[in-house]
Amino acid sequence: MSKTAILFFALLAQMLFAQEDKLLSGKIVVKDASPEGVHIINLVNEKEAVSNNKGHFSIMGKPDDVLVFSAMHLDLMRRIISEEDYKIANMIVEMTSKVTELDVVEINTYKNINAVDLGILKKLPKSYTPAERRLKAASSFDPSMGVGGMIGAALTIDPVINWISGRTKLLRAELEVEKKEILLRKLSDMFEEKYFTEILKIPPEYVIGFEYYCVEDEKMTEAINSKNAELVAFTAAELAITYLSLINEENK
User: Fold this and answer.
1) Rounded Cα–Cα distance for residues 81 and 77 (Å)
2) Mind listing the pLDDT tens digit for each residue in 69-80?
3) What is the pLDDT of residues 123-164, one digit of tens each?
4) How far is residue 153's CA from residue 66's CA, in Å, rounded to a whole number?
5) Is the dihedral of CA 187, 241, 205, 49 positive or negative?
6) What is the pLDDT of residue 16?
7) What are the helix and strand counts (H, E) for the chain?
8) Higher pLDDT, 226 or 146
9) Of 75, 64, 53, 77, which Cα lies nearest the Cα of 24?
């Protein structure tokens, strides 16, 4: 039996006997900031949760699942659920607040100085974010290699293993989280918190949740990426009406 076949059956056995998801509780601890409103997503089962004002949260998961913790005022962090976390079902997650940025930063840009203008390249290469690079590396094929001497079956062993283990799916989910984080930062740069509380009448404790609600909307995503502040404001006003009605329904 080939090594590839042995690996396949070993991974298959591991998946068959894998532990099931169960509800895990946890508490987020931050030294110099509020633990409230932290968005938690399980990249494996795609379950989500949001921490309360004391930092407590509950989410479905199992060992080796990857949890991503994100909030506008805290540094993004990832945590793999351990056997101990699964057994005790009560984890402590320590997060750090983001460093305060300067109000004014002067940046000198030199638009005409690049590899193309200097004659090094004929055209600029596509730039990738860290999550995009990891996904590309995990799912790319290498036509220079063949499997079993078969033409047309040329692929590296890494993509095969990644496909079997589900790692590529996890990286795709991580890429989506990164995209949402970028959209959240752009939305935060466009409007201060008082715009949401005073103009849109969003309760202060729901502002972070509303921002996440906004970046899930396709129309809002297009408006943010187009840097059209007026369209973003208009779309936010529409979404605020629906979001406030959801809050009222939840609090009944």
Assistant:
1) 13
2) 988 888 888 899
3) 555 555 555 555 555 555 444 444 444 444 444 555 555 555
4) 32
5) negative
6) 44
7) 9, 7
8) 226
9) 64
CA 64 to chain centre: 17
As given in the structure block, the two tokens for residue 158 are 């890494």
Highest mean pLDDT of the ranges 13-27, 50-64, 125-139, 172-186: 50-64
Separation of first and last alpha carbons in the chain = 62
Q: Where in the chain is the domain with CATH 2.60.40.4130?
A: 3-95
Instruction: For residue range 78-114, list pLDDT tens digits in order.
Output: 899 999 888 887 889 999 988 655 555 555 555 555 5
Q: CATH for 3-95, among 3.30.210.10, 2.60.40.4130, 3.30.70.100, 2.40.480.10?
A: 2.60.40.4130
C-alpha distances (whole Å) from 119 to each of 90, 110, 159 are 58, 16, 35
Alpha-carbon distances, residue 74 vs 25, 77, 210, 233 (angstroms): 20, 9, 17, 25
User: 27 pairs with which residues across the strands?
Assistant: 56, 92
User: How many Å apart are CA 77 and CA 59, to the nearest integer?
Assistant: 16
The set of residues, in sequence order, having a beta carbon less than 8 Å from that of 214 and lying 6+ positions away, is: 187, 220, 235, 236, 239
Smallest CA-to-CA distance from 180 within 214, 205, 206 is with 214
pTM of the model: 0.40
Q: What is the number of alpha carbons within 13 Å of residue 8 lying toward its C-beta?
A: 8
